[in-house]
Amino acid sequence: MSILKKLFQPKKPTGTDTPKLTGTERGKYMPDITAPADERFTKHFILNGGKFLYCTDMDEVHESFDNILLENDWYEQEVYCLDPKLEKLFDGYNLKFTTDKESSFLLSVCENLIADDGSLLISSNQIKEKKLKELPQNFVIFATTSQIVNSIGEGLRGIKKKNTGQIPTNITTIKNFEPKEGAKDFMSYGSSAKNLYLLLLEDL
């Protein structure tokens, strides 16, 4: 699987005539509904205004994370994190892990990446019972390509299967990333105006 190759090497037109659009045809920038899930997620995510850092191994994950901290001057800052595994994974950056809403950013994983609309599915496994507005302004999400699923329904079934006996609550999606004025290196979404980085690790 090579998301970047698919994304940045689009197929060249085979004909010379410009096709006429009808009411049922999709725009040329819309993702192909028959394309693989990883390609559809990537295209939808970008169409939503999203921006991710694609990594082929953990060395690249750490390099990208280091660049995020450097870009935003987040070294030796407080980081909102509820995941001990992430704290251990990113423990070499002089960060102060806490649960203070005023932290510089939230560091978290997610449940799934949704190909149909380019959204991120999260639950109480990541944010407990907090509402999005109760979390820091900035998000850094660490996910893998194996977490890409076709639809929200598929993601919900996966959550149920993984959490037999105790299904998590507070399940929601993050989508519609709109660049925030004056913060072009971030992404924001919806009325909550969250700024988000997605560290995406290839694991398939």
Automatic annotation (TrEMBL):
Residue ranges of the region described as Disordered: 9-29
InterPro entries linked to this entry: FTHF_cligase-like_sf, LUD_dom, NagB/RpiA_transferase-like
Limits of the LUD domain: 105-180
Entry-linked Pfam families: LUD_dom
Protein name: LUD domain-containing protein
